[in-house]
């Protein structure tokens, strides 16, 4: 009886492991967990003023089929007219694998959409600015086949929408108080970021 | 004695049935009865074996040139746009997403989103302006001209260059550090010059691993033994457009390059490819 139970348990474990392996190897499904590193550039518009930046980001994501939940963080350097400074960002979101195109067994070309929320702090020479935002984006990636099925090289694009940062504060930080009058009247600010990444 | 009678009877029966079994045409009684009530039931001949399977490549029908794939497409695009905002010229590089689906017949509905990076040449009066914007476009596309080139009967596919007429509208919202924030709409007319890679079927001999392009709600990819079309195609397109009429503050013309994947959402005939012969 004990031997039979052990046999059944072994078969069950082998079956579950095989199913999990098959899930990991299916290019139309995200791996159960991935880690990613991204090199990103950002253009942030605060009213009429703009702040650029480059940074290095890291991401951890958990996959369920075509969906992923992700947590990411980024650190970099911002460039502005009034003087640059470090910037840090943290956030989270979800990602949906929209298309997976596998011309052969060597790789799959994939397109995904993602969205989330985050908060970024710019520690510029003229002062600090904290910008909470929601973002949406997309990316395309090459997911390797063969023995490295978890390896993905991706190109990332994100568009952020944030409530308009106080214009007086922006003027003090970015122009040291010597800004010309802003003409942009949009009640929100935007940012665009793009980057290259590798995930595994 | 009875053994001899039985042996002779059996010999007679065999001698009678064997020619009938060996020569089934034209008369094949299922039962043969001898005097004395002894009957033999003939076993019906087995059905003829199925014809040998032909190579799938011979069965795959290439798409006809006038077959317009009515597939759902989804992909990314990038392009340039020339705008006039309250009388000032602006150039924009934009990048976005595009989605299209069959509407009726050969008519396709499409919708697009583009993020715009605005700029202009610097002037002696000051630094170069810069800004950003959003463009939402929706419309319909109708194929004008199409053909198939490089058709290969081994199912590896064909290229379908096409020219589509586009009509629709665009809602624009732009913010510029010199002109401020402006919104508006435009009617647009455009021409799409596209090149689409269409594969008729998988398993034709050259390519064993089936290519897959899957999306929620889309048809599953054709298995290697399928004779039907694969539910994907790869499309690249360039589309010069010009605003036909628009709101006063905004006028624009644009050209985009687009790469989309295509997923089948309906049956083979709706996909525009004829069924296998």
* Structure annotation, total helices of chain A: 2
- Identify the biggest protein-protein contact and residues per side: A-B, 28 and 30 residues
- As laid out across the biggest beta sheet of chain B, the strand order is 3-4-5-6-8-9-11-12
First-residue to last-residue Cα separation of chain B: 67 Å
Give the DSSP E fraction of chain A (strand runs of 2 or more residues): over 45%
**How many DSSP E strands of chain A?**
8
N to C succession of SSEs of chain B = HEEHEEEEEEEEEE
- CA gyration radius of chain A, whole angstroms: 22 Å
Question: What share of the residues of chain B lie within helices?
Answer: under 10%
Q: What is the residue-mean pLDDT of chain B, rounded to a whole number?
A: 66
Structure description:
- The complex is a heterodimer of chains A (200) and B (277).
- With 200 residues, chain A is an alpha+beta fold.
- Chain A has helices at residues 2-25, 167-175; strands spanning 33-46, 49-64, 67-79, 85-104, 107-124, 127-144, 152-163, 188-199.
- In chain A, strands 1-2-3-4-5-6-7-8 form an eight-stranded antiparallel barrel.
- In chain A, strand 4 (85-104) and strand 5 form a beta hairpin.
- Chain A is elongated, with a radius of gyration of 22 Å.
- The two termini of chain A are 43 Å apart.
- Chain B is mostly beta strands and 277 residues long.
- In chain B, 9% of the residues lie in helices and 51% in strands.
- Chain B contains two helices and twelve strands.
- Chain B has helices at 2-22, 56-59, and strands at residues 31-33, 39-41, 72-85, 88-104, 107-119, 130-146, 149-152, 157-176, 180-198, 212-214, 232-246, 250-263.
- In chain B, the strands form two sheets. Chain B has an eight-stranded antiparallel barrel.
- Chain B is rod-shaped.
- Chains A and B meet through strand 4 and strand 5 of A and strand 3, strand 6, strand 8 and strand 10 of B.
């Amino acid at each position: 009886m004990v031997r039979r139970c052990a046999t059944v348990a072994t078969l069950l474990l082998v079956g579950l492991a095989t199913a999990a392996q098959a899930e990991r190897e299916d290019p139309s499904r995200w791996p159960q967990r991935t880690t990613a590193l991204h090199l990103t550039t950002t253009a942030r518009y605060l009213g009429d003023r703009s702040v650029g930046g480059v940074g290095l980001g890291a991401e951890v994501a958990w996959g369920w089929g075509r969906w992923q939940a992700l947590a990411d963080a980024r650190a970099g350097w911002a460039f502005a007219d009034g003087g640059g400074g470090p910037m840090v960002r943290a956030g989270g979101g979800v990602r949906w694998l929209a298309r997976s195109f596998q011309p052969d067994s060597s790789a799959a070309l994939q397109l995904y959409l993602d969205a989330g929320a985050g908060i970024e702090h710019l520690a510029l020479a003229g002062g600090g600015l904290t910008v909470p935002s929601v973002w949406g984006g997309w990316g395309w990636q090459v997911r390797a086949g063969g023995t490295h099925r978890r390896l993905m090289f991706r190109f990332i694009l994100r568009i952020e929408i944030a409530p308009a940062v106080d214009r007086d504060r922006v003027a003090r930080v970015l122009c040291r108080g010597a800004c010309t009058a802003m003409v942009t009247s949009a009640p929100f600010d935007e940012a665009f970021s793009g980057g290259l990444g590798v995930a595994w | 004695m009875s053994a001899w009678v039985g042996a002779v009877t059996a010999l007679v029966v065999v001698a009678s049935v064997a020619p009938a079994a060996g020569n089934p045409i034209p008369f094949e009684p299922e039962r043969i009865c001898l005097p004395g009530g002894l009957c033999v039931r003939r076993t019906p001949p087995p059905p003829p074996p199925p014809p040998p399977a032909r190579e799938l490549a011979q069965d795959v029908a290439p798409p006809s040139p006038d077959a317009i794939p009515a597939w759902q497409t989804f992909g990314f695009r990038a392009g340039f746009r020339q705008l006039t905002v309250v009388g000032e010229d602006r150039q924009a590089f934009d990048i976005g997403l595009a989605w299209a689906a069959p509407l009726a017949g050969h008519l396709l509905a499409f919708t697009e989103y583009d993020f715009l990076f605005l700029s202009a040449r610097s002037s002696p009066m000051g630094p170069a302006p810069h800004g950003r914007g959003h463009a939402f476009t929706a419309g319909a596309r109708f194929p004008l001209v199409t053909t198939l080139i490089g058709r290969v009967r081994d199912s590896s596919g064909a290229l379908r260059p096409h020219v589509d007429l586009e009509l629709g509208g665009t809602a624009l919202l732009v913010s510029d550090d010199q002109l401020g924030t402006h919104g508006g709409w435009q009617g647009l007319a455009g021409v799409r010059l596209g090149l689409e890679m269409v594969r008729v079927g998988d398993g034709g001999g050259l390519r064993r691993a089936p290519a897959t392009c899957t999306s929620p709600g889309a048809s599953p990819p054709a298995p290697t033994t399928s004779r039907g079309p694969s539910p994907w195609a790869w499309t690249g397109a360039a589309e010069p457009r010009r605003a036909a009429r628009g709101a006063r503050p905004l006028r624009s013309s644009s050209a985009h390059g687009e790469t989309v994947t295509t997923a089948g959402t309906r049956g083979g005939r709706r996909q525009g490819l004829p069924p296998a012969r």
